[in-house]
Target: Acetylornithine aminotransferase
Amino acid sequence: MSQSMQVSRADFDRVMMPNYAPVDMVPVRGQGSRLWDQEGREYIDLAGGIAVNSLGHAHPELVEVLTRQAQQLWHVSNIMTNEPALRLASKLVAATFAERVLFVNSGAEANESAFKLARRWAHDNFGPDKHEIIACSNSFHGRTLFTVSVGGQAKYSQGFGPAIAGISHVPYNDIAALEARISERTCAVVLEPVQGEGGVIPATAEYLQAVRELCDRHDALLIFDEVQSGMGRTGKLFAYMHSGVAPDIMTSAKGIGGGFPIAAMLTTDRVAPALSVGTHGSTYGGNPLGCAVAERVLDIINTPQLLDGVNERSAQLVAGLRTLNDELGVFSTVRGQGLLIGAVLSERYQGKAGQIMRLAQSEGVLVLQAGPDVVRLAPSLIIPEADIRDALGRLRSALLKLAE
Model:
């Protein structure tokens, strides 16, 4: 079929699986922090493809590197390695706690790899009984059977047969609950340094330090899921850097490719040998196209100027939301870290995050929700200050309609 074939939102209901319910407009072009739909209507994007478009839409340096790589080498499989993958891995190792990297295609695959690695490492070093994984309530780690079992939200796992065994859940930011649950059978504790889908809730530094100590005491690995919180999103390259607590395994996706599908699992020399030759793999993981783009994304993001800019934009956006709230009383609190922000709805408006998302779209600004009670914002890390001001004005118009 040629690109000239006319399509519309109605075609989704005709030809696509019904597991999504996309909004009624179809975007066709993006530039920076703005999107345009089929009718030419403009939107300011505070959703960022759910924290994926870390440098906005069609960033010229990413377009350039993708175009250049597309003219050289697309895919060779992991029977061979390639230069972009080796450069990207070397830069990730240099910038983080890690010494080894595995590339895959999505956050779910990165987490699947992390959980398999943790179990294999514990099996090889302590025997088959040490296989239990402890995660946090209301966490989100992906949509594979393993990752929805670890995530522990029933709405994502019901109806798919028995959940994977040996997984339990404790409240987030509650060290006493973890201390009561962890044992010598625990192979790993997994958590998000900032819970994303669970409501944009940052972990305290004290909690992360205590989790690290408990893991060390019980010979368990600490896994940080930084799929949403990583790659500059919180004002540091990765959110764990705010606390100084290094994990044994970390996953990264979403923003790492700036919109190109790529993900990574990072770990140490102590843990990496458990995935020996043949124990795990990915056909597309580490392909030259994705790695070339992600290398440029990392080069751009991992600078003091850009990371300081994230904090400056965060302060502007949070202050603007609080000013709106002083007028309208829609939110009970505004929380998060950097440009991963959750505006928690006040009691009167609870359950209306989806309605706010739709009203905002009608006013020309795109936002997200994190459950029914939290409006979530995850814009480009380089969104212009003028776009933030414009977006806040459009959001005010939407909230005024909500209050009617």
